[in-house]
Each structure stands twice: as structure tokens, then as C-alpha cells.
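Long-time lurker, first post.

We've been arguing in lab meeting about whether thiamine diphosphate would sit comfortably in this protein at all. Half the group thinks yes, half thinks no, and nobody has a model to point at. So I'm putting the question to the forum: if I give you the sequence and the SMILES, can you give me back a predicted structure of the complex? Inputs are below. Any interpretation is welcome too.
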Amino acid sequence: MSQEIKTFTISVYTENNIGLLNRISAIFQRRHINIESLTTSQSEIKDVNRFVIVVKITEDHAIKVVKQIEKQVEAIRAYYHTNEETIFTESCMFKIKSNLLFEEPQIQNLIKESHARIVTVNKEFFVLEKTGRRHEIEELREAFNAYGIMQFVRSGRIAVTKDEMKVSELLEAFKNQ
Amino acid sequence: MNTDTIKKEKNTSAKAERITGSEAIIRCLIAEGVKTLYGYPGGAIMPVYDELYKYQDRIHHVLTRHEQGAAHAAQGYARISGKVGVAMATSGPGATNLVTGIADAQIDSTPLVCITGQVPSPLLGTDAFQETDIVGISTPVTKWNVQVTKAADIPEAIAKAFYIAKSGRPGPVLIDITKDAQFEEFDFIYEKCTGVRSYNPVPKTDINTVKAAAALINAAKKPMIVWGQGVILGKAEAELKAVIEKSGVPAAWTILGASAIPTAHPLNIGMVGMHGNYAPNKLTNECDVLIAIGMRFDDRVTGNLSTYAKQAKVVHFDIDPAEINKNVKADVAVLGDSKESLALLLSELNENTHDAWHQEFKALYAIEYDTVIKGDILPEKEGLTMGEVLRQINTYSKGDAAIVSDVGQHQMIACRYAEFNRSKSNITSGGLGTMGFALPAAIGAKMAAPEREVVAIIGDGGYQMNIQELGTIFQQKVPVKIVVLNNEFLGMVRQWQQLFFDKRYASTEMTNPDFVTIAKGYHIEAKRVTKRDELEAAIKEMIASKSSYFLEVCVEKEDNVFPMIPSGASVSDVRLS
Ligand SMILES: Cc1ncc(C[n+]2csc(CCOP(=O)(O)OP(=O)(O)O)c2C)c(N)n1
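Top reply:
Settle the argument with this. Predicted structure of the protein with thiamine diphosphate, as C-alpha cells:
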């Protein structure tokens, strides 16, 4: 088993219950695994949530953590994947002073080149939203930094996997038991 | 609640009845077959106690003297009977007092349903009187937990709780019920839970893994079995016995596996682990195939993992996929219920006797007998030993007693020397090592199995951690036998101080009260033994007694338990002195 530390995306399908977030994050905390990011949302299945958790650990660790998550009664299935096995993205928002938009022509170019989207503009500030890979977001942040950013926020990773998850089949099988 | 997520036994005959949440709780417990529960009342659970009063002819609530006692009593009840133990407490301190017992049940896979009262739901999050986030606190130490704020959710929560607690690898669950939900009326109907869609309690056994396991075992020259509590929890004692008798494989046990196969069985080669027997520890590092059955390679069993059974192929039978490759890499893993997987294994095994291999165990046993066991159970020195007390208990209980031990030297001695004819007879806190476990656990065990002799073996330290439960024994007239092995020390810690801290006995010496007087204060018959010639008669009298009985045996103060694998050392470095 590889002892190399890699980025893994852990995907968890769960029931939609309060408290599960606690249970799942405790599994990482107990093992001193830093969660790089954690996102939860509705999944493709009605009333089923999906957690996307990014961690930097060995594959050996990833296997063990996934088993511990699956052991939780209300976790339906858990998987781990490498970057190559997933399609993933992050998104971010910038709040920037509006006058810069007019005084600094470079800013308009930056927006255009980076495919960022203007969400809103008013007299005082404008808000940009950008979706992409971490390095793209970081590049943009650095570029804007030179002019001053009023607020910056970045989401955790969201990811879908290239292979099938087969969670619906599992739930279907339970129904027909 | 989203009811599509669970399966229920349809209860078509029953008509919904309009009752309160608190009455529903009692009705649910009765429907689950609960006859006895342990607990302690308080503000947030009072409506439920009011119903317990009304239903007292159908369900027996035992008032312990501390909520920790209630949790451990429920554990003892569960461990001896295989049924779900039930404990109840009020919010805040009542709930937090349960936590040690819950954690103990979690690590020792004991089915427990704990019900706590909670402040009324409008007060949640306001730091109300006796509000604690018990769901948050208990999350890491429960198999499942939930807070209920509406009466209508109570039946499903309780149904799910019982199903989860007892299915698959058992464990504790906690239901926290707000006081307003207890008062609220709703249309009650109870349907037992038969499945939870996100939860697969028993993975299917793959026959190919069984065949691969059998091939390794059949080809082995020096195979060795180590079984754990999974055999008992899976009710697979007969299957295990058949497997070892057909294959001739010597079989050792972990503390929690003790008693699944009678002590006297010729293929039973004793206990593994820190204070286990010499032969199975030593030969763990010489066997060619190690067959682990329903055990989890705890560090107290394996010692240093990097030198544990490295020469052996490992076959691991377990119900919990998370145990496979957790500590020890398995060459073959057989998932599933032990009763089923061992039955499948049996038909794949060749008959064998492994006579020469058994001789190796016998030779090492002889060394252990001469250097350790003889001095423990047949001492020639003046002071009394813990081992001779166990020998006398064996003699007078004829191996039929359930031994409930606390934590420390006396526990190791009890596990090493108690003789068992029947399964579910060694009740002790293995994984958590909770001092204070034995006295309340013995109460629960005796109440669950009144026909059995239940003997608690406790140190003078641990006894004082839940000594208040003598009150429960007195009030409920529970005829347990209590043996305190008094060495006037926190013996196990003192042993480590002697061996590893140059005899600096920091805070391990105990100035003890008069235990006999205390027991008598609770109207429990009590005796103290200080000399060898008094011991046998006292034990005889204790076992013969029909009521509860307290026996203090003043043993040698600075005896040590051997063999011992010092922590961090290899199993093959087990020390005899
Ligand atoms: C609640 C708790 N606190 C502390 C310990 C640490 N500990 C393990 S054994 C032991 C000594 C037990 O002394 P005693 O009950 O007198 O039994 P003996 O070892 O002398 O037989 C202690 C303090 C523990 N296991 N549990």
C-alpha cells in the first residue's frame, strides 16, 4: 500500500440527519487528519446528502477512514478518489471597490481573461464570481491583490467522479428487500 | 423523520391509541421485551418516571445510586443475557454520568439503549437549567444517537434504537427526548424496526474467502486460532468448538472471548495479551497461520505491531469491515456473521490433530506453571494471593459462576484463573478498562440471570469507585457475591511503578475504610479473611449463601501479575518475572 501522501476526495452519501456532520468530522479529528475542505449538499437522490471532503493523506489512511465513515449507521456509502479520478472545481467571490473598475483599465482585462462573472455592481463596490481550479483562483486573487480586495471568499471543492457510484441501486435494493 | 429510510414490521392488528410521549416510551420498551431497566430520575425525565409508576407491574425500574451504575448494570444485564440493556437518566448531569458506561459499551460492543430526558425544546440552546448537549457529547461513543422533540417521533426512534443496538456488531445508542415531547399526546402505534437502508449490519460471507481460509488452514503445519467476543456475540460457540475439534488447531482467546469454549477443553490453550498465557503469546510469533475470529487486534493483545506474527499468514473473520486491515494486515478476510462463516468453514476443513505442535504449547505451559501459576494458585508463602482466591472460587462454584471483574491486577488474575464451563461468563471491562464497572455490572448480570451464581471480583480501588451501588443491592435484594481483593494499593499501577518507575509509588497507596462495616451498614452479610486457613471456609460459605454476600480478602500487598508483555514490547518478549 502506498505510503505517499496524496490529495484524496472522499465522497459520502448520507441520510439527511442533523448530527452526522459531527460524526463524520470526528473520524478525521481523532486521527489528526486536517480537513482541507468539506462541502455538503443534496445529491442526485431525493433526501440523500452528499459530502465532498478533501484531505491529504496516504491511501492506506484513506481506506481506513472510508471504512470508518461507512460504519456510521446513517452513512450510506463512502468512496475515496484521486484527483485524476474526479472532475472537480471550486468557486470564489471578490468584493472590490467600484471606482477601480473605471480607474484601472487592467481590471477589466483581468475580468475578461479570467472568465470571472460580475454578480453585481453599485456605486461603492462590485462583486465578482469565478469558478475553476485552485491555481486559477489563486492567480486571480494575487492579481487583484495589487489593487486591493475588500472581501475574498473561496468555497471548498466540489467534485463528481468519473466512475459510477451505484448508490441508487443500493437504495432500490433495500426498497425491494 | 423520513420514514422511507427504515423498514418496519407491519402491525396491522393494532389500533392507534391517543397517549402521551412518556407513556409511549414505556409502551415501546414493553413491546421490545424489556422487563428490567436501570436509571435515576430527575426533572427532565419525570413524566417518564410517572408512567413507570403506573406500569410497575409490567416493567421493573431499578433505581441505582448513580447513573454510571445504571449504565454498567445495563451492560452486565446485556453481557450475560445477550439482550439489550436499558438505562435511563435525566438531562444534564444525569446524562453526562451515563457517558463512561456508554463509552465502555461502545468499545466492548455491548447492546445498550440509553434514554435521557432533555429540557423542553423551546429552551434548547438557551443554557437552560440542566441542559447539556448530550447528543453532541455522546456522538463519538455511540453507535447511533438521536434527539427527539416531537412525541410522534418517539416510536420510530425507539424501534430504530433497539434494532441498531442489537444488530450486526452491537453497540450503545442514545435517545434524548425533550420534556415537551414527553408531555405531548399523539396517536401511538408501535412497529418494530427490521432494517435501516443506510446500514448493512451483517456483510454477506463470500464462500470464496472461506475456501481460501480453509486452504491456508488445511495446509498449515502450525496454525493457531485467537478468538474474541465476536464468537459470543454471534452465538457461534458450538461452531467454533466444532471447527477446533475437527481441525485440531490450538485455540486461544482474548479477555472478551473468554468462556466461549470451556476452560477445560483440551484444545483451549489459554489467553493472549499483556497478561495472557506464556505459550499462546510466545507461539503467536511462531505459528504459520494465525486465524483471528471475532477479535480486533487490540494493542493489549498484539503488543508491538511491527513484531506481531510477522511470519504468519493471517486469516481474519469479522462482522465489521472496518476491523479488517485496521491493525494487522489480513491475507484472507472473511466477512460476515461468525455463526454462519464458521459453519461454512467447518465443512471445508480437513481433520487433523497437530500433535507435535500441541506439544510445543504444553512445554511452554509447563514452564509457566512452574514459574508463575503454581506460586499464584498454590502459594507457599505466608501472604494470601489473588490466585488462590480464584482457585477456591472455582472449586466451590464448580466453574459454573459468572465472574464479573473490575480493572487491575485482580482482573487479570480473574481472567487467567477463573474456570468457565459456560459461555457469557466472563464479564469485564476490556476495551475501556473502566474501574468501577464490576459492582454495578454484577447487579445487572445477576438480575438478568438469577439462576446463575454471579461473583464480582474487585480491587480495593475500583470498589470505591461505585461502592454506592451496595445500596441498590440492598434495596433490590440482589444476591450477588462480592469479593474484594484488598492489597491496599492501586495494584496494577503500583506494579508498573515498581517495574518501570523505580518503585516510586506516587499516589497508589490506599488507606481504606472498614469494608466489612460498610457492607454491614447496607445489611449485607460480610466477612474479612486475612489468613489462609480461613479462606476456604469463607468462600464455601459465600457460595452457599442464598443472599448477597461480601467477602474481603486481605492479600499480599506487593504481588505482581505475570506473565507480562511490557507495553511496546513484542508478544514473544513476554516476561515470566
Ligand atoms: C476509571 C479509571 N481510572 C483509572 C484507571 C487506571 N488504573 C488501571 S488499574 C488501576 C489500579 C486498580 O487498583 P485496584 O482497584 O485496587 O485493583 P488492583 O490492581 O489492586 O487489583 C488504575 C488506577 C482505570 N483503569 N480506570
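For your lab meeting: The CA atoms of residues 14 and 60 of chain A lie 23 Å apart. Chain A touches chain B at residues 14-19, 22-23, 26, 30, 47, 63-64, 67-68, 70-71, 73-76, 171, 174-175, 177 (CB under 8 Å). Whichever side wins, do check it experimentally.
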